[in-house]
Amino acid sequence: MSGILRNNPVSHFSLGFLYPFRAARYISRHPTLWKFVLIPFLINTVVFSISVYFGLNFFSETVVALIPTGEAWYWMILYYLSWVLAAVVTAVLVFFSFMVVGNLIASPFNDLLSERTEEKLRGGISETPFSLREFLLDARYALVEEFKKISVFVLAMVFVFAFNLLPGFGTLIYSVLSILITLFFLSVEYTGYIFSRRRVPFREQRRYLLGRKFLMLGFSTSLLVILAIPLVQFLCIPMGVVGATLLWVDHTSPELEKKSGA
């Protein structure tokens, strides 16, 4: 009976949901990881500040000017409804620019954070001294892989945005698809550092994620919730990186470990 309770979609979702919070506790207990957290944190603080600045300028100078106005009472209602809708769209654009650009710039440091976390979890210590040349090579690879993932994500979001043009349920369909794409992207994004470090192709990563779909759904949902909390969202990236590494170590695919030589 206890096995049935543990092995079901709800328990898997709940377990996955807790991994980012386990990551926060793990980071707090291992000060040697803080330096790998600090740089992405500062990067994302700057990126978020720039995104908000340009987002507010875009909203106040461009979007508001396009909102229709008139003398009749219904124009006033339309004005405020349009204003709210424009504010939400601008906020979404700021959110995605922060998430996309922040992850892209910080990807080399996130890769280091994931690697050092896995070494600690497995009880190993890296015997290779730091090499700027190796770091730059790894950083280039991480940036290329990150750019590929982000490009696919952006194209997918642009594609599903077209559903808004359909009358009736078009907006509802877009909302559901965009959330599902975002959840899948978050899982791909934060487990990607582990897979790219092993040079594992995306088809294997996809197989790994879909084989643990409720676990990964809980994990990515937790990250989406964290991203929606002001200020706490700055810590989302290190929580996601370390959380995905904790999840990998706890739920390692033997086939992938054998292929990667880990």
Features:
262 residues; disordered N terminus; 81% helix; mainly alpha; single chain
What does this protein structure show overall?
The model is unreliable at 1-5 (pLDDT under 50). The two termini are 35 Å apart. The chain is globular, with a radius of gyration of 21 Å. It contains 10 helices and no strands. Helix 6 crosses helix 9. It has 262 residues and is an all-alpha fold.
Detail the topology: elements first, then pairings.
Layout: H1 2-6, H2 9-28, H3 34-66, H4 73-122, H5 132-161, H6 170-197, H7 202-210, H8 213-227, H9 236-250, H10 254-260
Radius of gyration: 21 Å
Model regions low in confidence, pLDDT < 50 over at least 5 residues: 1-5
- The share of residues in helices is over 70%
- On the 0 to 100 scale, the average pLDDT is 77
Q: Main beta sheet, described?
A: none
Shape: globular
Q: State the distance separating the first and last CA atoms.
A: 35 Å
| Range of strand content | under 5%
One letter per element, helices H and strands E, the order comes to: HHHHHHHHHH
Structural class: mainly alpha
Short description:
The chain is mainly alpha-helical.
